[in-house]
């Protein structure tokens, strides 16, 4: 006679990750403001679709180069808030 032992499956609960998003455009012109709105909408939609993501905040700067932190006030705020 064969003896079968059932091993129960462990329920792996998916951990929710709280995230912040930083979006930026380098010029304060209509075309780039539209791009910024698309960036923000993308991450908000993503957080609504993926249940493991809790979107805490969306930070953004307009008319700021990505080369330096100077002048990127929302970027700096995101870093401080994350600490």
UniProtKB/TrEMBL annotation:
PROSITE patterns: RECOMBINASES_3
Stored InterPro entries: Resolv_N (IPR006119), Resolvase-like_N_sf (IPR036162)
Annotated ranges, domain Resolvase/invertase-type recombinase catalytic: 18-83
MF term (GO), any: DNA strand exchange activity
Pfam families: Resolvase
Protein name (Swiss-Prot/TrEMBL): Resolvase/invertase-type recombinase catalytic domain-containing protein
Species this protein is from: Clostridium innocuum
């Amino acid at each position: 006679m064969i003896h079968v032992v059932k091993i129960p499956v462990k329920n792996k609960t998916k951990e929710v990750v709280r995230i912040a998003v930083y979006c930026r455009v380098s010029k304060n012109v209509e075309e780039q403001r539209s791009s910024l709105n698309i960036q923000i909408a993308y991450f908000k939609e993503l957080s609504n679709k993926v249940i493991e993501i809790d979107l805490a905040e969306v930070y953004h700067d307009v008319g700021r180069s990505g080369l330096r932190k100077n002048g990127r006030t929302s970027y700096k705020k995101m870093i401080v808030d994350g600490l």
